[in-house]
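Q: what sequence does this backbone want?
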């Protein structure tokens, strides 16, 4: 590396000031809040349409205040026992009914409110696994583009994972290949609407039909886009059938903290009927305490997020979500057009609210850094087999007013990335991976213990892109463990 090497070593150790969470003497409330605001100053922007991952911003004035007030009203309500707090039970049932209304449910549809998409997916896998106690080694079949949270569910629940490759050009799975992967030990087939990485909708109808023909459950992971796809269809977009209206689909999940624009973390897992949901529950009475019965993974849980979600949906309403979907669609079209007009990029066809693109001539990791330097925060994605590396942009309604700014900055970032050229990894770093301590590897890339991060991530991403997925996992686990260490004080 040339100049990038020095950039890489410019670790931002002062990004966040570390304070004792347990001082000898308590601090005044106003001082604590001031300290918290100061710490938040080092975070990426959650509002304003410049962060294309992790957060979802409707751009609606007053929405945060409403959600915060609703959260405060129910923050100390405990979801452990709905008979003690009927308000929370009512709000959860209302949210499930709203999700069923949007996602093709009927009078038999039931569901649960969870803390997020990962919990919804874990529970979908649990319900499928526990519905077949006769299978000693249950298996889950899914396209390789399915969300990693499904692999996490399989790992946690000791379910064998069978991933089906996708075409490296179209990035689509062949339904016949999914059907061929189903065995007598398969308890669940999963597909995406849309896939997170590229925003493409799996062929749900033939996949669900294949699952049903084999007597297997089919779960649709619509956590990411399930709240927008129905509204985009109403706006005239060619959205294929994907929800509970499709025969053979037995469950579906949708995250309200994504395009329903509620605060983190609220998701809904829907089942076609009560018999399908029953194996999701956990019950235990064989001890002297209270009988534990839980529909979700957590026992004690705050009613704050659920109340904030309920208030947000009530405030925005069906007509408001249709308007937000229209703004998001227009912004997605415009952002995708800005990228497509530059010959260096191959833009993946738009089917949802994602702009994803690849390039054979521009180092995408350098481009991501150049965009970040201009205030636009994207999500680089690593190569996978024959699928090249890409950049992912989750477009929200808040992006719409900033499309012109993005177009100008994107063009400038492309020129800067082209002039910079591709990243060259530090000499010999690949040879160190198996022998050197993680601190040495991290130091060469600008990562420091206790939260130190380099100003530019291209060297880190380039290394991760160069290695096999198993090595990538090992490195990232080690890097994260290095970062998640309390600061040392005398």
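A:
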């Amino acid at each position: 590396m040339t100049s990038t090497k020095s950039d890489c070593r410019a670790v931002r150790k002062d990004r966040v000031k570390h304070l004792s969470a347990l001082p000898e003497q308590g601090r005044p409330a106003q001082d604590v809040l001031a300290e918290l605001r100061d710490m938040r100053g080092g975070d990426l922007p959650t509002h304003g349409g410049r962060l294309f991952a992790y957060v979802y911003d409707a751009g609606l004035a007053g929405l945060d205040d409403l959600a915060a007030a609703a959260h405060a009203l129910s923050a100390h309500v405990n979801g452990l026992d709905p008979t003690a707090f009927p308000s929370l039970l009512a709000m959860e049932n209302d949210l499930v009914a709203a999700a069923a209304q949007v996602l093709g449910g009927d009078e038999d549809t039931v569901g649960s409110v969870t803390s997020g998409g990962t919990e919804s997916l874990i529970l979908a896998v649990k319900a499928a696994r526990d519905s077949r106690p006769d299978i000693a080694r249950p298996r889950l079949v899914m396209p390789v583009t399915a969300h990693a949270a499904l692999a996490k569910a399989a790992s946690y629940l000791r379910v064998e994972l069978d991933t089906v490759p996708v075409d490296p050009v179209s990035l689509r799975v062949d339904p016949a290949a999914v059907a061929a992967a189903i065995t007598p030990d398969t308890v669940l087939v999963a597909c995406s609407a849309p896939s997170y990485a590229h925003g493409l909708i799996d062929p749900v109808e033939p996949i669900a039909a294949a699952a049903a023909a084999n007597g297997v459950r089919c779960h649709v992971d619509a956590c990411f886009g399930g709240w927008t796809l129905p509204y985009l269809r109403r706006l005239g977009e060619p959205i294929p059938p994907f929800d509970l209206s499709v025969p053979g689909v037995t469950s579906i999940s949708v995250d309200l903290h994504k395009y329903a624009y509620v605060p983190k973390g609220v998701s809904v897992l829907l089942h076609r009927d009560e018999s399908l949901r029953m194996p999701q529950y956990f019950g235990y009475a064989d001890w002297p305490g209270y009988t534990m019965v839980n529909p979700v993974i957590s026992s004690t849980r705050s009613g704050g997020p659920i109340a904030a979600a309920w208030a947000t949906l009530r405030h925005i309403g069906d007509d408001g979500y249709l308007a937000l979907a229209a703004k998001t669609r227009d912004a997605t079209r415009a952002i995708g057009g800005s990228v497509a007009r530059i010959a260096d990029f191959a833009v993946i066809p738009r089917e949802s609210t994602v702009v994803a693109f690849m390039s054979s001539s521009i180092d995408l990791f350098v481009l991501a850094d150049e965009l970040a330097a201009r205030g636009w925060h994207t999500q680089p994605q690593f190569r996978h087999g024959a699928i090249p590396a890409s950049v992912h942009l989750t477009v929200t309604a808040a992006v719409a007013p900033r499309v012109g700014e993005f177009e100008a900055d994107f063009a400038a970032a492309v020129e800067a990335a082209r002039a910079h050229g591709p990243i060259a990894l530090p000499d010999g770093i690949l040879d160190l991976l198996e022998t050197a301590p993680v601190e040495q590897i991290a130091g060469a890339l600008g990562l420091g213990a206790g939260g130190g991060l380099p100003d530019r991530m291209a060297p880190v991403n380039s290394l991760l892109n160069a290695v096999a997925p198993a090595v990538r996992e090992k490195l990232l686990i080690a890097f994260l463990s290095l970062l998640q260490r309390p600061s040392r004080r005398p």
